[in-house]
Amino acid sequence: MKKNIFIVASGTGGHVVPANNIAIKIIRYEYRITWIGTSHGIENKIVKDKRIKLKYLKSSGIRGKNFFHTIKGMFNLIRSFFQSLVYIYKDKPIFVLGFGGYISVPVSIAAYLMRVPVYVHESNSIAGSANKINNIFSKITFQTFPETFPSSKKIVLSGNPIKDSFSKIIKSEIKYQNRRETLNLLIFGGSQGARFFNHNIPLCINQFGNKFNVIHITGTQDKNLVEKIYNNSGMKAKVIDFSHEIDKLYDWSDIIICRSGSMTVSEICRASRAAILVPFLYATDNHQYSNAKFLEKGNAARIVEENEDFSTQLYASLTEMYNNQEILLRMSNNSKNLFPNDSSAIILENIPELNEKFNNTAP
Length: 363
Hints:
CATH topology of the largest domain: Rossmann fold
Largest sheet: 7 strands, parallel
Number of helices: 14
C-alpha cells in the first residue's frame, strides 16, 4: 500500500497555492495525499488533482473576533482536534505538512501527540499566530523569508513552492534588452484587494495613452465598470475576471501592479519582472507591507501605499519606469536571488521520511 501524507491548508491562496504546488510534486512519486481543509475553503477550487483526497474539519478563526465568534472558534478548535485524532488514527500518515492558518493548529497538536512528524511552512515575512504555535510542535519549520523565525537548527529557508511552468518564462535579459515605445502592464488586486484597484488604477493609467498595453484582472466584481473606463479613454486594455494561467500573464508583462501577498511576490521574483507593489491595508500584522519592504530593500520593486496620494504616486512611479526603462532590467535582475531557486526541492530534501529516494511503499 502507498504511504499516506497529510497536507493541511485552507483559507487564503497564500496558504493553499504553495500547498497545492508541493502536493503535486509529492504525488508524482505516487504517495497518497490526504488534504485536510474546510468545506468552504478556496482549496475546493484550487485543488484539481483527483488523486488528492479532501477531508474537512469544522474550523473557524479566533483572533480579532467578537465574543460570540471567539467562543465558536474555541469550540471548533477542540472539535477539530478530536476529528484530527480520528483522521490520523485511521489514515496513518507518515508525516503532516501544514501551511498555516487556524485549521493547521489542531492537526499539528494531534499529530505531535500521536508521534507523527509535523512539518510547517510559513509563507509570509511575519509569522502568523497559527504557525507560531505550530513551530513549537514541528520537526522542521520552512520559512519563505529570512528571519521570520529566530535562527535555530530546525528553521530552514525554503522560499515558496512555485509552479514548474514559471521556469519557461522569458528571461529578464531578453525581455528588457531593448527600449520599447509600448510596454505591457499587468494589473491584479487578488481576492481581497481588487475593488480598490478597480476603482482607482484605470483612471490613472488612462493618462498614459498608448504607452501601455493593459491586462487588468478585476475579480468577480466590477468587470463591466473597468471595461467601460478603459473603453471611454480609448486605451488598449483586456479586462478579465480571473485567470488559470497566471504564469503566461507574467511572461507577457513588463511591469506588474499588484498586492504583496507572499505567493505574488515569490512569483514576481521567480518570473524576474519589475513590479509596483500596493500592500493590502488590512492584512494581518500588516504582513503585506513587510513582504513588499523585503523586495524594495533589495531594489526589486517599488511600493505605492494605499492612501490619499495613491494615484499621484502611482503615476510618478510609472512615468519614471517608462522613461528610464533600464530600471526594469535592474529590478528584474535584483529579484532573481531574493528567494531560493527551487523551493520545492529544498522542502522535499529536508523531510527524511521522503528521503529513501522517495520510497513510497508501506511495510
